[in-house]
């Protein structure tokens, strides 16, 4: 991409401002803040709503009663195939993996984990490593529970492992790290084999160090191709740290957001410990919904076919975003962005000091985008230079308009800031 | 009921022992430990499984996506009518009220409640009052979280309020009380207006004292008649303690156990506080299941009609238990029992020191009953004299056999114990 000189920037700013005056007249009112599937995607799973007929009902009496607290066997098998673990390494939870992550973190604080000497909350300080940019809801869990967050930079292969290794080796108050290993939120990074093996085997001052492994997008490819990834649980076992990782996943973006099925996977010893704590909390999760999902998604191959249909809807939307950025942004200093192979987001790095202003100006024009700073703990991005684009929910024509506004605003604010710095 | 003399007891024991030898040959293998609905009851709600058709699906797009974290409006209205509160005093949760109780208690420990000076766990000791006999899963929550349990006796009108008032007035470490206000587990007590008003207005040393009000059986009558009960939330408001009560309920024993809908009701200020904490934990509960329930149960009158069908299945089973006790137990010292108008249990008070032996002897004969002592905190019933009968799950013929075993064993063990004490 080109690098424009001062005059070129000034004349581009004029063109951009003129375009903005036109876009103001659009009177847009659209919301791109969250990674919500569209109704078209949700419709793909409609058969799940009616797939328990009289015959299924009569054949599975135990599904409709109390008990089977860790989930039905068929659901364990399905999720085991998706997460490449054994089916006895699966706990099938309720409708939300976020809930499972929060619950697990709160239990770690209140009770400690299987290999803790005492509850985490009894330590003077508890810290978690948050690769940035990252997922705001992970940060919100830490903030709510009083866990201090330390950032390390993301790379295309995962967190900056040199930085991670140096931190965890020295500081015993660092109890864990948040990871989204495939198509990470928001920058779409895919953890490499080396990253996974280093996370599994690194020396940690805290002997009960935990990897909170949010495999939210395990099968959420955009290009139709399922990516095999080194198993983190296997890697931890091989490194002699079998209880280090707790894996979370759900079908929220496979079937129905909010009415899917969430799961935990971990080493059996860890699961035993957690399930004993859960016994005071829950008699059983919603096994009827588990059965619905098993009947609908059937097996891993059928699941992948289903995800290809999701990708066919999502891919053109990602292309709209990427094409719009590519065709508008005229200088590489204005912005760079991720080009993800899956997941739900495109991460845009703007000229420093621009992200908040862009968010505000977009809002003024009727376009809500994810809050600037939300990809950093405490909404504190020191460079104020990262924004998350969530293309999934909007219809294509709305998305085209939204991106027209976004890229124009992005260019305007960035050039203004660049010119200010030139003076 | 008669009081037998020594000779009569001895001869009755001989008859009983002889009958037991016959019952041994039955080779029974039945489980009466839990209050599980029968499949016949569950079948009553089968239409819920398929009541979201294409038209409903298209008309309610937001139900199938993220958001609406506190539940759909129609569900709030339905549960408000059931619990006699306002619909804006309802939070619609996941599949389990037990989960909501555990979560609320853990949040009280970790964060404190809306009117707390600090998290409960920062106090030297946290105590809860547990009316006995009571519900083992309430006790398990306290035990798991390290909350000390203090017992008070139940009366037919609710907890012994003189004892409760004396305790909470003096001891600021008592942070709350467990209540099952209607058809209480296990003795079927119905809290009187006076009990409710005294609970709402009593002076408590802890200013953040909480009534955990598990209204599990609000509409679970056996005799077809819905019982109006003073509203605890209103009573608390009237007494100037609007945040004192947190009400829990679910449809687990209305529709599907484990695949129903759980709710919290509380004063708006309390709910605001709790929902702010929940925001870090959950984006939304399963609104699809909420919609299913609204479409099926429709309104309070339809709900009551549904509960009449449940009662028609349950009542004959309770009668089998009561008839068996009445026709077998020949001396009032051997056992007395509750005669509930609703709920899921019959509470049997045995001759002191017999409950554990009865449980063991029943187990030997192939009949599992609820663990003796489980109606007391820490499984510690000082008199060893209370057992809980759960008639709902078994088919009628199994139940007749089970009660034959139970009453015979009950009589045998009690007479042996009485004779021992006479020597």
Automatic annotation (TrEMBL), chains A, B:
Superkingdom assignment: Bacteria
Magnesium in keyword set: no
Keywords: Aminotransferase, Transferase
MF (Gene Ontology): L-aspartate:2-oxoglutarate aminotransferase activity
Pfam families in the record: Asp_aminotransf (PF12897)
Gene3D superfamilies: Aspartate Aminotransferase, domain 1, Type I PLP-dependent aspartate aminotransferase-like (Major domain)
PANTHER family cross-referenced by the UniProt entry: AMINOTRANSFERASE, PUTATIVE-RELATED, ASPARTATE AMINOTRANSFERASE
Record's protein name: Aminotransferase/MSMEI_6121
Record organism: Phocicoccus pinnipedialis
